[in-house]
């Protein structure tokens, strides 16, 4: 069971003081958070790509490279790279550089993105939303194999027998497919035999079990070894000494963030009741004491089959020292409980 941290590098007014830190300060904080995650033995740290005022990272590989230079073991991934509005050649080149700096620890999590700001910014038509992703993923997978590339498509100039540099330290940079939980993206990952990451940020995580089974069935029918495929998820959460303290600390920024996005997307108001339902044993919010969070992750493995879990923390803007402590507790206390129980359970 791989355990890690994901972040979108939010930059929002502090819900208590109203003060908004600079993008630069948030970036420097993230480097320290990557260091902490590596220090406490977590497996992966993943950073999202956004092109908005309220997020600090537009190029995950840049901040990951800064973290790579100050860490030794942790794997470093985007979460996600918005492949539809990027050039796969440049994506592979940049992650190959990250791979070299980190000594072979880079990963790409490719997705269509949950925001659309990058499309008009880089001159893409939203009517091509699906076609862009399919075509660019095809090219990225050819680049992953290495060697001279010959390729043509409808949304990019063709490549005729050219090789792309630099070469990564790894034989191939792992490429994960990120999904918000649609059957279409799940089937795509299964057919291609690519590892899958599900964004489980609402409802009950157990409701995603049929999607995981669909993924496995599709992969098997396509001739891939299901046991070798990665199945991951990321969910919002926060670890503190007790359930009550964790809830008190995490709710203000969670409410602020969810309501901001909710206003843009027509969601209902996020309330204390919404929060309490989400952090209950069957909810998708992993907020509580180390024991509480560990048990929810164990249940996720047993009931859904997740092999990699990313705790998305913080949600919104929280004090940096609180985020560091949450990551430390996740690595030092939650991870050993989860790994020991999974090893005992699967050893039966």
Considering DSSP H and I runs of 4 or more, what fraction of the residues is helical? 40-55%
Gross morphology is globular
Question: Sheet with the most strands?
Answer: 8 strands, parallel, barrel
Kindly report how far apart the N and C termini lie. 16 Å
Q: What is the number of helical segments per DSSP (H or I, 4+ residues)? A: 11
**From N to C, what is the helix and strand string?**
EHEHEEHEHHEEEHEHEHHEHEH
How would you state the average pLDDT, rounded? 96
Spatial strand order of the main sheet: 1-2-3-5-8-9-10-12
Rg computed from alpha carbons, rounded to a whole number of angstroms: 19 Å
Total beta strand runs: 12
Flag low-confidence runs: none
The secondary structure category is alpha/beta
What kind of oligomer do you see? Answer: single chain
What would your notes on this structure say?
The chain has about 350 residues and is an alpha/beta fold. Helix content is about 45%, strand content about 15%. The protein has eleven helices and twelve strands. It is globular.
Q: Which terms would index this structure?
A:
single chain; 348 residues; alpha/beta; eight-stranded parallel beta barrel; two-stranded antiparallel sheet; 11 helices; 12 strands; 45% helix; 16% strand; globular
